[in-house]
Amino acid sequence: MQPSSLAFKDRARAAMADPQLQHSLDLLKHGWQAGRTRAAAALPEFEALRDEGRNIKDHVLGHLDLYLEAFEARVVEAGGHVHWARDAAEARRITLDICRDVGARSVTKSKSMIAEEIGLNEFLEVNGIDRVETDLGEYIIQLANEPPSHIIGPAIHKTIAEISELFQKNHGGERITEPAALVAEARRVMRQRYLDADVGITGANFLVAETGSIVTVTNEGNAELTHGLPRTHIAIASIEKIVPRLLDAFTLLRLLARSATGQDFSAYTTLLTGPKRPDDRDGPENFHVVLVDNGRSAMLGTALQEMLRCIRCGACMNHCPVYLATGGHAYGWVYPGPMGSVLTPGFIGIEKAHLLPNASTFCGKCEEVCPVRIPLPKLMRHWREVQFDQKLTPTTARWGLGLWAAMARRPALYRFATGTAIRLLGLWAGRRGAFARLPLAGGWTGGRDLPAPQGRTFMAQWTRRKNR
Amino acid sequence: MSTSRDVVLGRIRNGLQRTDMEETLAVRRVGHTLASAEPNLVPARGSGDLEERIATFTGMARAVLTDVRRIAAWHELPALVGQYLREHNLPQKLVMAPDEALDRAGWDSQPLLRIRRDTAADADTTGVTLAEAGVAETGTLCLASSDRRPTLLAFFPETSIVVLPAADVVASYEEALERYSARHDAPPRSINFVTGPSRTGDIGQKLELGAHGPRRLLVVLIDEA
Ligand code: SF4
Q1: What secondary structure does DSSP assign to A197-216, as a single string?
Q2: What is the value of ipTM here, to two decimals?
Q3: If B110 and its partner were Cys, which of A422, A441, A456, B78 is the partner (CB 3.0–4.6 Å)?
Q4: Does domain B45-222 have CATH number 3.20.20.30?
Q5: Nearest chain B residue to A246, by CA
Q6: DSSP state of B225
Q7: Span A285-298, pLDDT tens digits
Q8: What is the pLDDT of residues A73-123, one digit of tens each?
Q9: Among A393, A410, A430, where does a domain finish?
Q10: Are A150 and A234 part of one and the same domain?
Q11: Could you tell me if A148 and A197 lie in one domain?
């Protein structure tokens, strides 16, 4: 996927003027955001589990090389293969080579953010491998030829009407509009693809060093059919997905679904260890794990190391006022929301993504909900400092950073300012001077434009106080 | 020329910057952690005596739309399955795990039921298998693959029936795996934790069942040991 994060402001404006997208984002608040609140409240141990989750991840990152070596040894013992990829190009090449080795024509693939990150989809297509996405959301955006807009629900921006149209165009037949019938239709079409597939490609939510297992988590059961039916299974995972023991995976699994969708546990959590055993009646004969670095190792020992704790739950975006106003496509690359604003500059270069760390109200909500307690606002500020040093910051954002630095020295004032959208408005209203929709006030609709704040901004107030 | 493996591991070591002393300690720490069975925090929710665990399991499983029924004895199983299929207007046809534990139910009592013993194929409408354990904490089934318990039975057919001996309802995922490791020497190819039927929210963020895996999930708890 070609990054286009520099177009953030224009895309954000367009997104906020799109009533259908705004409707989908509203649903997210009532659905997953509210769900997380309920699930966290229903489990007395939730906060303590978050501490443990953070500690497990920190421990792993401090011993990453050793756990990866242990994992590799166990996979090989179980009869599987481990491949190491320095970067995206190598990971794509390895995956294609395995497909070619087994003479694959048709591939099923279950949703994997690392596959998006390394641009695997287009690469397989260009190289003549017929690929179908098995996660329903991912399938929808495959048909629409669009990138995902959310790491958990890649098609949350698509309306039922749009999906209905896509299905009719691609599957033929009558126009179906009922969600249940659309799901049944996808199920029918996908069946044959599962049976025809020579290779199944999945991601992995966790890699377990103790046993050489990989863990997949889905609600649809598509991962199980993706890795359970073809003769060859390729799991692609970035190196930081590793945990020491199965017991540690459970701690993180208890956090994952609750943080992501508000479920206590996802419908399907599967631990896979090696290929089909000699007497087994199903399962793949070949089991490959592709371990991908692609910039992770460079984050170790830097301010960004903490970002490697991320378990890709999506809670930070579900709770982010900016994401909930703009949707995921505005961010212009694979990872949206606060986690994307921290990851994207590292992966595609700060000069191509310098607007993202500024797309924040610094309200702190993301850090509040992050199951592994990643200090996302601090990490966004880290990028702002880097870009400030590199003089990449557009004038409006430089102004914003000056404001932040000033405020950070005055905690009371900082607390006063965070949780409001005023700076965001000042930044974004930009040339137009009027705002289509106030991100933090759900009651405002496209019908009424709000004037951008003028004059008495926090900056102005602060200056007056300082001069007093 | 160094391999990609060496490069990646080298970069990691470079980032971590461990001294020789720290290196020795790190190796020891990792060895210790991997060998340790010390549990992490396990939520109290699933604990209690067997009846309490069964009650929690049943409540949690029903909350995620699993159908849970309880019978006293194995010989009641075939009639219950036949009845369930009729309730849902499903063909009297099963693909069943080739596990002798299921034989004791005496399937001849339901002459109308056509039963195939293998893994599931495309034409199979209902799959029957056995759970290794049930996890009270979240109403989750723990299934383990083997030659007698093929994985696809619980994933490919549209209706999934899972038999769970009541005594195998445990508090946590950890205990479920402990049960397995007490009975077997090595991990199986696949362990599936199943919490409700297949579901998706990908169409307009509305909950729909049966996306790829089963649309219906029936758990039959059997008291008889
Ligand atoms: S940064 Fe935290 S909240 Fe965001 S996706 Fe990662 S783990 Fe979840």
Answers
A1: -SEEEE--SEEETTTTEEEE
A2: 0.96
A3: B78
A4: no
A5: B174
A6: -
A7: 999 999 999 999 99
A8: 999 999 999 999 999 999 999 999 999 999 999 999 999 999 999 999 999
A9: A393
A10: yes
A11: yes
